[in-house]
């Protein structure tokens, strides 16, 4: 059961091979046994989970079950969860119990899924290693001395170590895809506006997007059927008809046009990563896909633009943490200004402060035109590159990250080195495009490697279909870390 896909679990529940209570207990036991070593979860409430599982079993008995009814799902601790801690990995929210549910949480609840717990993450989703959490670093199940990637590292580690059959994450510059790549799982960042941001703690609002993480592309499609859809409470949520994300799973690969941007295959990428990615692409070619060389000439500017735009938006979004409304408040202070200063000095970690400083600087009078406005123009150029590329191809493929998982602490003193991890994942969110990471092999040290598939707006089903085909011919996605045997 622990290594089963959501489809298999759903079928097992339907034929009464197992009950949701039993299934939930199985995963809760595994979390209890392994979470000490991995630190993937911040909050687990076994009683609540088992209560939901019991309710799901009753729904099934009454004949009202859907595909996810009774299946435990873990949620990144960035999604507000009523009556439960929602910390966003920060001391600022270490005691915050949300009075309401995020849209995504509501959707999973009404689909009958069981909330398994809240997963650890980089503080306020800023990072690529899940080391900046106030609750301590997450460890990579493939090698506990290494990071699981970030910021959705807790969700990634939980799925990789089979502590959860599936999880949610959020992606602003790569936070679903890069940890998916580092831990050997699948992760999808949907088109901007497809998943409601209501109740998702805001980092950079024009980039943030929730998405699913699971073992297979088919599982991601099932999760997207629950997560996607219009929500009037998020003004950037798109009013579109409901989609069935499984609709292209059987689409043949023959004739699929795969774009290979030469910028993604350069010297910045570790050779063993490139080798596995090229092998995967060769497999697609062997199935009748056509390979098309192309250029994304402005992609070299993406990282710089992102690290202006994201901090700018973060500095504005995080102004709400002022010690007045909710969250941490300094114990001792003089006047109001002193209360703000002490609260924020105590409540935020170093990376969050760095972003607020950068963001405030680039938005300030006198620098706005030189940095923020310039970055917005670059953002548009990057989006145009993609538009031109998708006139010639259906899917863009390349590595998800330039390396495999690095050791804990390796980039701790060098933020720019840390930011370079996002080099391949940042262009998609800057352009609002959907992008998916799936496992495509291992390096010499046995660490997972991710293949990234990027599509034009609303091409999720197509990406998932191509990935599903690949996963029917490979088993990288079913391997389990030796440190966390089944
Ligand atoms: N690593 C990137 C950053 O630190 C992306 C984070 C994310 O996608 N939330 O901003």
Provide structural commentary.
With 486 residues, this protein is an alpha/beta fold. The chain has a domain at 6-256: Amidase signature (AS) enzymes (Alpha-Beta Complex), CATH 3.90.1300. Helix content is 37%, strand content 13%. The protein contains 15 helices and eleven strands. It has helices spanning 6-14, 20-38, 46-61, 103-110, 153-160, 177-183, 217-227, 271-286, 302-317, 336-347, 350-363, 368-389, 415-419, 427-430, 460-473; strands at 41-43, 72-76, 114-119, 166-171, 186-189, 209-214, 257-261, 290-294, 395-399, 435-442, 448-455. The strands form two sheets. The protein has an eight-stranded mixed β-sheet, with helices on both faces. Strands 1-3-2 form a three-stranded mixed β-sheet, sandwiched between helices. A hairpin with a 5-residue loop joins strand 10 and strand 11. Helix 2 (20-38) packs antiparallel against helix 3 and helix 7 (217-227) runs antiparallel to helix 15. The termini are close together. Residues 125-128, 151, 171-175, 203, 310, 422 line the site of glutamine.
């Amino acid at each position: 059961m622990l290594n089963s896909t959501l489809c298999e679990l759903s079928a097992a529940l339907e034929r009464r091979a197992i009950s949701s209570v039993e299934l939930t207990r199985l995963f809760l036991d595994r979390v209890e046994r392994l979470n000490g070593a991995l630190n993937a979860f911040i909050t687990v409430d076994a009683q609540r989970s088992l209560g939901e599982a019991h309710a799901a079993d009753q729904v099934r008995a009454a004949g009202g079950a859907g595909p996810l009814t009774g299946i435990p799902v873990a949620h990144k601790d960035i999604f507000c969860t009523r009556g439960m801690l929602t910390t966003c990995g920060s001391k600022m929210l270490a005691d915050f119990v949300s009075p309401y549910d995020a849209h995504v949480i509501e959707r999973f609840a009404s689909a009958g899924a069981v909330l398994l717990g809240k997963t650890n993450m980089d503080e306020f989703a800023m990072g690529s290693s899940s080391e900046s959490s106030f609750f301590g670093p997450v460890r990579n199940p493939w090698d506990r001395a290494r990071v699981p990637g970030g910021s959705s590292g807790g969700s990634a580690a939980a799925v990789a170590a089979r502590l959860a059959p599936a999880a949610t994450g959020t992606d602003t510059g790569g936070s679903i895809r890069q940890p998916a790549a580092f831990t050997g799982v699948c992760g999808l960042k949907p088109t901007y506006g497809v998943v409601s941001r209501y109740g998702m703690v805001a980092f950079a609002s024009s980039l943030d997007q929730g998405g699913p993480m699971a073992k297979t592309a088919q599982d991601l499609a099932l999760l997207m059927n629950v997560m996607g859809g219009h929500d009037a409470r998020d003004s950037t949520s798109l009013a579109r008809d409901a989609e069935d994300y499984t609709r292209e799973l059987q689409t043949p690969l023959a004739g699929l046009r795969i774009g290979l941007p030469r910028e993604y295959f350069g010297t910045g990428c570790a050779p063993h990563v490139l080798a596995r990615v090229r092998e995967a692409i060769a497999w697609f070619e062997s199935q009748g896909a056509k390979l098309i060389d192309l250029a994304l000439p402005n992609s070299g500017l993406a990282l710089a633009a992102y690290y202006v735009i994201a901090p700018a938006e973060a500095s504005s979004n995080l102004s709400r943490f002022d010690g007045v409304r909710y969250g941490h408040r300094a114990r001792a202070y003089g006047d109001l200004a002193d209360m703000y200063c002490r609260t924020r000095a105590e409540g935020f970690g170093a990376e969050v402060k760095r972003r607020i400083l950068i963001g405030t600087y680039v938005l300030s009078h006198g620098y706005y035109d030189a940095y923020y406005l310039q970055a917005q123009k670059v953002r548009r150029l990057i989006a145009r590159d993609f538009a031109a590329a998708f006139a010639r191809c259906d899917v863009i493929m390349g590595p998800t990250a330039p390396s495999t998982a690095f050791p804990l602490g390796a980039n701790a003193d060098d933020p720019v080195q840390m930011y370079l991890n996002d080099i391949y994942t940042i262009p998609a969110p800057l352009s609002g495009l959907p992008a998916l990471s799936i496992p495509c092999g291992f390096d010499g040290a046995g660490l997972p490697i991710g293949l990234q598939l990027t599509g034009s707006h609303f091409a999720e089903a197509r990406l998932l279909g191509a990935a599903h085909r690949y996963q029917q011919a490979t088993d990288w996605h079913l391997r389990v870390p030796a440190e966390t045997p089944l």
